[in-house]
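INFO worker-7 received task bundle
INFO bundle size: 2
INFO processing item 0
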Amino acid sequence: MVMAAPVSVVIPCYKCSSTIERALSSVAGQTLRPAEVILVDDGSGDETSGVLETLKDKYGDWIHIVELPLNVGAASARNAGWNVATQPYIAFLDSDDSWNTEKLHVQYAYMRNNPEVSLCGHRCVLSQDGEALPVLQKRFDSTKINATSLLFRNAFFTPSVMLRRDIRHRFQKGKRFAEDFLLWQQIAFSGLNVVRIESPLAYIHKSPYGAGGLSAQLWRMETGELCNFLTLYRAGSINAPLYVAAILFSMIKFIRRLLLARLSGLSKRWS
């Protein structure tokens, strides 16, 4: 009998028929496989549903499919998977990203050996199709993430995060931009321990601020981040000076990103 980690993997799926097999294959190829994978079809309305059923037939009852009748966004889709998860740990993966084969072995071992940690993330690598993947180092250093630092920089990509299923926090229902960032902030500001493993254990196959998909919508992402600060301020998690400082720093970052995006567009136009 193959040993499985007591982890539920939650993958929101929206019109992802061309990428979900790569993501799921990276989970199936783990040296320590999770106990279950929950694929949440977020009202795709296309061939995605059929692809998910085909993958379930391929991998068996280890795969569970949750069908949502309407598109509710990644935050609510992840919550739907979280709500039906049976394992004490939840790991998130996006349908267009993938994991290093040692990801669950390393991260679950860390969580098991450090039960005081409620959320553990790790480094990620931007990997374009056809590029050689980096060799994983054998030393796995970790850093405790301070809550205040999360006001100024998101320490985690969502496909890097594993957390305890029983924490009370969830993704904000219906929120579509910076929803993951808000959850990490709420967990950290509630006093729970948040840690990052300083090794790249996941592969991001799209640029975080590229020309396509949600990441291209820089202003919507910025307003999502600004709304996070307001949520934290109203909840009493941060005081007025921190609230103002976070807004100012975020706006400076936004202007920089906007300039870089425009310069990149000009470069492509003239190349």
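INFO item 0 finished
INFO processing item 1
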Amino acid sequence: MNRYDSKYLMRWVVLWLLVIPGIVLNLGCQHRKTSTSKSPRVLPIKKVVAVGFIAALSEKDQPASFQNRLSGSMVDAEPVSRDVVRQMNDIMLERVAAEKNYELLPRSKAIGVYLETLNSDKSVGMPLIKIVQEVGNRFNADAVLIGYLYRWREREGTDYGVKRAASVSFDLYLIRSHDGAIMWKSMYDKTQQSLSENLFDLGTFKESGGKWLTVEKLGEIGLRKILEEMPPGEGKE
């Protein structure tokens, strides 16, 4: 190979060394874009069936890992009493009715249809989200509001000193009736800590006035925060 051919070859080698990384990088970027998942298209929410909160574990159960049949995730859960379920549903539905523009079907109607559908022979082996979808369709509603209460642990102590702080965990879902898509979901999982334990939890510290919260107060704070994220409806004039 003469000197001219060597120079020509070297130019091509340098050119390819500069071009190929750019091609690979571009292909990599294209792959990341096409693999991004999309949320379901948001449609107007008018009529909503309020199944509300359900205890992940009953008060007779022992603490255990619980599989959320709506999301498939595993969550550490503790027994939650019926009184707590009723209390949280009353607060939650009162706030939703006041703050969101839904035509809200009360839980007293929804829970009966939900339990009937859940325990029917045809629901055996059916994914829970399909059962929820059927409940929504029974009422000709746009969506179903449902969630789990995983933990409701009272503090041990007083406003100014505790052996064990209050702790709550719950979630909520809006499930679209016509296709079972999860339109919105949010979870609140909180054990109160002192400011010295967690400097980033200044918000809870301010809301508590520097005191140790009762479980009811901590639950109300969490409920308010997740409902702020819930999309508004178009059901009322």
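INFO item 1 finished
INFO post-check item 1: The first strand starts at residue 47 and ends at 55.
INFO post-check item 1: The first helix runs from residue 3 to 34.
INFO worker-7 idle
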